[in-house]
Specification:
about 400 residues; alpha/beta; Rossmann fold; 7-stranded parallel beta sheet; 3-stranded parallel beta sheet; 15 helices
Length: about 400
């Protein structure tokens, strides 16, 4: 099968959860004998050089189009006054991307076209004009839910008004697109339920992020000197989560455990956030790390206090695969069939995060058992080759109807 993926950023190398969540399927398609073409936006903040793509497998071909998708005041104002499109979507519309898309559709003739997110839906009319292939939307998030969460958590009144307006525009736009594609895949059952509630007749299925089977490293002796967070810091829900945790939970933890260090890693942190973290006692801010797996394996306890968004947290799954003990909010664990106290620990308040960390450090046996259970859960539920085979079966069903 010839598969064309349209992406909002180049997914290789898979430096963050978003890129990893796309590329792991590209790689598995290739391993299963399919031909993969990727047409990706190459934005400034996630820019990937052509040299970086040299190590791709031979049956994965990537075309990258340089587009400046960075939000700008002038563009936002023009969109606000003169358009009904969500600004988040409008920023991805580009003439050169359209030209290259037509070229690929004409010369490659893909069997199925996979849109990696709602922001690629403006290209649906072009696809329909130049291809008969079915189009599947892979909904990494329900975007209007994510942005409504962000708006609701914003205290600045003007910013709240603007984000709420954009969330409403996204809702109208996204729900319309659900009816225009031939199929939808979500990464959590919660997101699938949201789509079915609004559009009961659409063809949709849940296929979460997956990991490659491999050796794991369950925790044998808990590291009492450190906890960690890993996630893209140009993503607003992660920024919100870290700022909340450092302002509210970290003072309690640091007062109780003054020798404990909080290691934070993530790419493209805004300067204000970077300066704030670097100047907070007890925090070690790493910025972007060259090897996420190596960073994860230095520590044993991961915190993820996410309160906005939908979709699934790739870095939590990767941490659990490596036998790390995760302490997270319920929102952060959506799509992961984990039992609180068995596979991970839930916390919603500053005191709850502080207490869970303290209990783990005082009870290494509990930490070790959670570590073992977490690794086993990921092996059982997130095998990427099994998930990719399920996705291909979904494609074939659509193609044959």
């Amino acid at each position: 099968m010839k598969i064309l993926q349209l992406c909002t950023k180049v997914p290789f190398p898979p430096k963050d959860g978003g890129a990893a969540g796309v590329y792991i399927f590209s790689k598995s398609f290739a391993q299963l004998g399919h031909s993969v073409s990727i047409l990706a936006v190459n934005p400034k903040k996630h820019f990937i050089s052509q040299e970086a793509l040299a190590s791709l497998p031979p049956n994965i071909h990537v075309s990258a189009v340089n587009i400046n998708t960075r939000p700008q005041w002038a563009g936002a104002l023009k969109n606000l006054i003169g358009s009904r499109l969500p600004y988040q979507v409008e920023r991805f519309i580009d003439r050169e991307f359209t030209r290259q898309l037509i070229d690929i559709l004409t010369n490659t003739r893909p069997d199925v076209i996979q849109l990696e997110g709602t922001y690629l839906c403006p290209y649906l009319p072009v696809i329909r004009k130049h291809s008969q292939a079915p189009v599947v939307l892979r909904a990494h998030n329900i975007e209007f839910t994510l942005w409504q969460n962000i708006a609701d958590n914003t205290k600045n009144l003007l910013k709240h008004w603007y984000l709420n307006l954009q969330a409403q525009r996204l809702r109208d736009y996204e729900l319309a697109q659900f009816s225009l594609v031939d199929g939808i895949t979500t990464v959590t059952d919660n997101d699938l339920s949201t789509i079915k509630r609004h559009k009961p007749g659409v063809r949709a299925i849940t296929i979460p992020f997956g990991v490659e089977p491999g050796t794991t490293s369950p925790t044998n002796k808990i590291n009492t000197k450190a906890i960690f967070f890993l996630g893209a810091l140009d993503w607003m829900p992660n920024q919100e989560a870290i700022e909340w945790f450092v302002h509210n939970a970290w003072p309690l933890i640091h007062a109780e455990l003054p020798e404990l260090k909080f290691h934070i890693a993530g790419r493209n942190a805004p300067e204000r956030l970077s300066v704030f973290l670097q100047n907070t006692e007890g925090i070690v801010f790493h910025g972007e790390v060259p090897d996420a797996g190596a960073f994860i394996n230095q520590f044993d306890i991961m915190v993820c206090p996410l309160f906005s968004g939908s979709g699934i947290r790739v870095k939590i799954i990767e941490a659990m695969q490596h036998g790390k003990v995760v302490i997270a909010s319920a929102k952060a664990t959506a799509g992961i069939p984990a039992v609180n106290g068995k596979h991970l620990l839930l916390a919603e308040t500053p005191h709850a995060f502080s207490e869970q960390i303290g209990q783990l450090l005082s009870d290494p046996g509990k930490a070790q058992q959670i570590s073992i259970n977490a690794s086993a859960l990921v092996t059982e539920n997130f095998n990427i080759l099994a998930l990719t085979s399920k996705l291909i079966e979904f494609y074939n069903q659509i193609h044959n109807d």
